[in-house]
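User: Please predict the structure of the protein below. I'd like the answer in structure-token form so I can feed it into my own downstream comparison script.

Assistant: Understood. Taking the following sequence of 183 residues as input:
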Amino acid sequence: MKALKIVFIIFSILVMFILSALWYVGFLTKVTIEEKQAGGYIVAGEEFIGPYSKVGPTMNKVDSVLRIMNINCAQSFGIYYSNPNETPKEQCRSFVGNIIELKDTGRIIAIKDKGLKVDTISSGQALVVEFPYKGKFSFMVGPLKVYPAFTKYMKEKNYKTSQSLEVYDIPNKKILFIMKYSK
């Protein structure tokens, strides 16, 4: 009987630890979708083709180039052109990098001279989810939670995707999932 009690206590502690870890990384976070204006960014980055889980080194490269130029890189981004449920992972296309702050927009030619592509993400009506950033696991958990909610919401409203964007605002500990749409 005593052994059964010890096993129960160990099992309970393990379950509490797992639930706490899932809560901490956002797996138990409720996804709240807002319809609002989003975008209006000037961005610098590079194109990437391949599994979205492998964009990290490209993002780090862009970040390094900009930091060497003393350009503040408080927010990074990813535009994801391909639906990974419909496109082979090796063929998924994206554009990743950093959002350029207004004070650095006068340096766009210098940024281009470093080999980075500079573009704008226009402001427009979008579905927006703010997801907590609690570490690298948030980059995996967020999409698992948010994109199915986007898909369901868009199906109910009969919206069509026009652009999928993620903004990684690490200093403010959040990830913005932005799904621009058309009716």
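That's the full token string. The two ends are 64 Å apart (CA to CA).
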